[in-house]
């Protein structure tokens, strides 16, 4: 059996980082970790081929080679999924799909023959048994949450690592919090399940032996969901990183209560973490209460950000506008918070109701849903009727974007970050980073238009004079700013 595993194209979004890739001569920011793991669960006698459409083209020859086409996708990849599935069906291929996109929307895809939903450790073996016996059903689903200490290692040999800016490893699934708009609990449960320390070392070791050096994304939605176990794992990873002279710089996603745990922050930086994404959402207390983001209400959000920065980790932040209880001045408050926080990589989007979430069910019961979810909360779309006038909401949202990603305000924010940031160790420069620096001089310092290059040179001069240990971070932030300005012009 010849199986073609396809990861559909992700459109130009905050997380795609497409406009950054030319600075480092890479094709994609992140690897399709889910499909690489699925590949290890398929029968050993199957021939496998992986196409990540974010890094390479899917050719008709690839499709013709396959007996079956397996698609793994998120909601944001919906349009590309339809194209891939249609091409495969036109070529007479059997199409199998799984991933978050299909969890509650599988019935929208007539082109797909079989759906393997929920967590593949449970449902994929059931499908494979029936498939090989010639009695496969259309949908396989389960509420059982598997023990991920038994999850196989990703099949890295299917991937060309040279095409990617970072590698990925999963440590845990699930989150102890249950925010109304978030689908993580629906997908992975409220009890965080974690891999063993030995598993994590083995996954790090494999990437190291394959020659990877540089950025490594721990893809968990809340890395610190089980704080007792994660501390043990961090101690083990620190020993490994020290023994290997820190070949990986780590980044992840976590909840804001990280700032309340001094030991945890120190353990993370000791293990090599230098940045973390936080779901900050909003400075409006009434909106945090509305969406059940209780962990954000128990702390001073601005001070929490500064605390994490002072411990040697950059904070990337997610923000949402469009809650029912957002006050009329929410736009000004979001701008003020973002500017004062020094969060240059601020992903701010309009609230969207994702199928399966408590928010979706509430809005459905209130008769306020109006269209499907695009999966990109930064594209300016609304899939429900907001309490605030929709045009005022969209206009205010655009005002926030225009302000925070205008060159002057963006570079001011980078300098605010550098003022508080205290890197724990001096990292060895990778060739990729040296290349990015010289390309930044070309694209941002010479070819960029208007005042953009003036702000770029001012940042580099100030970073060199006053924040020399963080000079590399200054260059990186300048490059990310270019990506965000490109997105803003869409």
UniProtKB/TrEMBL annotation:
Record key words, sorted: Iron, Iron-sulfur, Metal-binding, S-adenosyl-L-methionine
SUPFAM superfamilies linked: Radical SAM enzymes
Cofactors that this protein relies on: [4Fe-4S] cluster
SMART domains: Elp3
Positions of the Radical SAM core domain: 159-408
Cellular component, GO annotation: cytosol
Keyword Iron: yes
GO molecular function: catalytic activity; cobalamin binding; iron-sulfur cluster binding; metal ion binding
Entry-linked InterPro entries: Aldolase_TIM, BchE-like, Cobalamin-bd, DUF4070, Elp3/MiaA/NifB-like_rSAM, HpnP-like, Methyltransferase_Class_B, rSAM
UniProt protein name: Fe-S oxidoreductase
Native species: Desulfomonile tiedjei (strain ATCC 49306 / DSM 6799 / DCB-1)
């Amino acid at each position: 059996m010849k199986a073609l595993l396809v990861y559909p194209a992700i459109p130009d979004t905050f997380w795609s980082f497409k406009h950054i890739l030319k600075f480092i001569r890479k094709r994609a920011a992140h690897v399709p970790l889910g499909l690489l793991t699925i590949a290890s669960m398929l029968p050993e006698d199957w021939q496998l081929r992986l196409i990540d459409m974010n890094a390479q083209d899917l050719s008709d020859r690839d499709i013709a080679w396959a007996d079956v086409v397996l698609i793994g996708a998120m909601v944001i990849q919906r349009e590309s999924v339809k194209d891939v599935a249609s091409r495969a069906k036109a070529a007479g291929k059997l199409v199998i799909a799984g991933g978050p996109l299909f969890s509650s929307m599988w019935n929208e895809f007539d082109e797909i023959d079989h759906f393997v939903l929920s967590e593949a450790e449970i449902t994929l073996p059931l499908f494979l048994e029936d498939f090989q016996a010639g009695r496969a059903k259309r949908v396989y689903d389960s509420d059982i949450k598997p023990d991920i200490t038994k999850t196989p290692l990703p099949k890295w040999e299917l991937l060309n690592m040279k095409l990617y800016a970072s590698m990925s490893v999963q440590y845990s699934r699930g989150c102890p919090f249950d925010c109304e708009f978030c689908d993580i609990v629906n997908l992975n449960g409220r009890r965080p399940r974690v891999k063993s320390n030995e598993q994590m070392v083995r996954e790090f070791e494999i990437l190291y032996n394959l020659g990877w050096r540089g950025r490594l994304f721990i893809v968990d939605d809340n890395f610190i969901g089980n704080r007792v176990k994660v501390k043990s794992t961090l101690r083990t990873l620190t020993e490994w990183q020290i023994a290997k002279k820190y070949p990986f710089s780590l980044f992840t996603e976590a909840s804001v209560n990280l700032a309340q745990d001094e030991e945890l922050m120190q353990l993370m930086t000791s293990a090599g973490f230098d940045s973390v994404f936080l779901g900050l959402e909003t400075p409006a207390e009434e909106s945090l209460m509305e969406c059940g983001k209780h962990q954000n209400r128990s702390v001073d959000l601005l001070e929490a950000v500064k605390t994490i920065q002072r411990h040697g980790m950059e904070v990337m932040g997610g923000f949402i506008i469009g809650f029912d209880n957002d006050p009329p001045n929410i736009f000004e408050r979001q701008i003020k918070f973002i500017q004062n926080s020094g969060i240059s990589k601020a992903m701010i989007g309009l609230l969207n109701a994702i199928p399966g979430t408590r928010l979706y069910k509430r809005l459905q019961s209130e008769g306020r849903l109006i269209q499907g979810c695009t999966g990109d909360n930064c594209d300016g779309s609304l899939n429900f009727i907001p309490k605030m006038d929709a045009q005022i909401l969209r206009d205010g949202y655009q005002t926030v974007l225009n302000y925070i990603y205008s060159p002057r305000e963006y570079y001011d924010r980078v300098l605010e970050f550098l003022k508080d940031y205290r890197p724990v160790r001096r990292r060895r420069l990778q060739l990729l980073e040296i290349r990015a620096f010289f390309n930044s001089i070309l694209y941002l310092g010479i070819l960029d238009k208007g005042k953009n290059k003036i702000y770029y040179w001012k940042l580099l001069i100030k970073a060199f004079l006053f924040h020399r240990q963080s000079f590399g971070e200054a260059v990186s932030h300048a490059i990310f700013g270019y990506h965000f300005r490109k997105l803003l012009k869409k």
